[in-house]
Structure formats: structure tokens, C-alpha cells
Amino acid sequence: MTDIGEGWQVARRRKGTSKKYTSHQVSPDSKCLKEHLDVGQFIKRIKNIMSDLRFEEFCKEWQEQLLVAASTSPLKTAENSNAEDRKDQVCHQLQCVCYGLGSFTTCVSARYQLAMLLMLLEARQIPLLDCSVYDPVFSCGERDVLKELGLNVLTGNEEGKHLVTKPTLFYMMHCGKALYNNLLWRNWSAQSLSQVLIIGNTFSGMRERSIEREFKQDYRYISEAVDLCEEKQLPCPSSLIDVFSDTALITFPSSSLSRLPQSSWVDSPEPQYQHCPDLEIILRESQS
Questions:
Q1: What are phi and psi of 196, to 5 degrees?
Q2: Which one of 17, 22, 65, 133 has the largest count of C-beta atoms within 10 Å of its C-beta?
């Protein structure tokens, strides 16, 4: 891979610093930094990273894994359509939501994660405007870059509570557990979860690194989802361990969802996190 100025070696030194979300609110001033940013030049930098990634075998495997997962989503396709027609239909029907990308103008890892996102959208023929992106830490310049790339930049903090209405890929690299838990809660039904695909940290890894009792109490939906989902570990080269480590493609097979008792779907209170002092999420400003 090409060394992109200051970035490449820094990404390798920051092992273990993957958390991007902290439990605090962001003031309007801090959300809109007055930095000088050459949008065109920065887009060129992102595309240079994409050019490097095109030659990486692990990137090709990510793309193939996504195609296979999307092809098994509950999409309505004509029975008499051929395989290529079904593949095209899947690609065009799949939407995308990206949470927690981070400040990609200052963080090398975030730049690579953005480049990978664009590669996946391109490979799976997902229109850029069908990909919604949000992070409370985005500066005005970063939002301009994303808009210029063609992505849909959300203006409100959903806290991960995005309800799916069609098969949707959630790109959530190294996000806090609360964000994943909120997403699961909002889509806590067999019909909705079967349409959710996640590229992010493994739920099984979250469970292994947590105290079982606290994990079940504070992150109930992740705790239950561990036994409902299918996690396919995505490859990560050693040179990018801090960028793409512990990443999997997570899906929810209908066969697993159907085994859960109906009572599990009915009793699904919204997470409150009252006993989580280290909550890794940026809350909406309207909350106290």
C-alpha cells in the first residue's frame, strides 16, 4: 500500500484505541469546527486510499461476503429471474446507514474506514445517496466532503435507533455497545431483524470482554442477539489491525429468529443505561 503522508504509520501505532464514542453531549460550537478544508483535495486523498484497497485480497473478500449475505436477505424476486437479475435487484434494493465513522480529517483509521465504505457501496452497486452517514463529531468541512462524495448526511442524532423498512446494511466500525444495542432494540422483531446486516464489531467479542451479569442487564439486546445472529469474521491484514480488527458481517437468519419465543419480542423496553458510567455514545443535546 502507498504511504499517505502522516497517516499510515500512525494507524499502526494506535493499537487498542478503537473506541470512538464517549458519554457526553456535544455543543453546537464543537460540532462545527471552523477549520479550513480543501474539499476537492481531501476527496482526492480518499480516492487514493480506495485505489490502494482495490488491490487488496481482504477487500475483495469483504465485498464477496456482503454480496452473499445480501443475496440471502428476505427480498422478493421473480421466480423466473436468472441469477444475474436477482443479484442486480439485491444490490439496488439494499440501503446503507453508517454510524460512528469519526473525524476522518484528523484520524487516519477513519479515512481508511470511509474508503472501505465507498468501496463496498461501489462493488454492491448501492447508490451513494442511499447511504446515510452520521457522527456527532463531524465538522462542517467533513460534512461538506461527505456531501460532495454523494452521501446522504443525516442532520439529527438517532442514537442508533434507526428502524429498517427494507434490507439495510449498517456500517458501524468500532462503535460503542450502546449504539449497537439501540439499533437492535429499535428493530426488535423477527421481520425487522431479518432485514438488518451489520459490518461492525462482533457481538460475541463484546460478551467475552464484559462481565456477564452486567452485560445482560445493560445490553440486553446484544446479549440475546449473540445467539440469534450469524457472525462471519472479515479478514484483516496485520498492517491494518487498528482499522479493521474484530470486524464481522452480522446477519440474522430467519431460522434462528423463528426459534425465539413470542414473549421475547413483546417485552422489549427501550434501553436506559442508568447504571453505565462508561457509556460509549454521544447523546442527543435535548437529553439531560
A1: -100, 130
A2: 133
Q: What is the pLDDT along the chain (288 residues), one digit of tens a residue?
A: 443 443 333 333 333 334 444 433 444 444 454 457 899 999 999 999 999 999 999 999 999 999 888 776 554 433 444 555 444 444 457 999 999 999 999 999 999 999 999 999 999 899 999 999 999 999 999 999 999 999 999 999 999 999 999 999 999 999 999 999 999 999 999 999 999 999 999 999 999 988 888 888 889 999 999 999 999 999 999 999 999 999 999 999 999 999 888 888 988 899 988 777 777 777 777 544
Instruction: Map grid coordinates 473506541 to a residue.
Output: 19
| List of residues 6+ apart from 176 with CB closer than 8 A | 19, 20, 21, 100, 279, 280, 281
The three three-digit cell numbers of residue 160, written as one number: 442508533
- What domains sit in the chain, N to C, each tagged with a CATH number? 56-262 (3.40.50)
Report which of 71, 65, 72, 94 is spatially closest to residue 84, judged by C-alpha positions.
Answer: 71
Cβ pair 199, 171 in contact under 8 A: yes
Long-range contacts for 68-76 (Cβ within 8 Å, ≥24 apart)? 69/197, 69/232, 69/249, 69/251, 70/94, 70/124, 70/167, 70/169, 70/197, 72/251, 72/253, 73/167, 73/194, 73/195, 73/197, 73/251, 74/167, 74/194, 74/195, 74/254, 75/167
- Evaluated on CA atoms 165, 193, 93, 203, the torsion sign reads positive
Q: In the numeric block, which cell numbers belong to residue 195?
A: 432485514
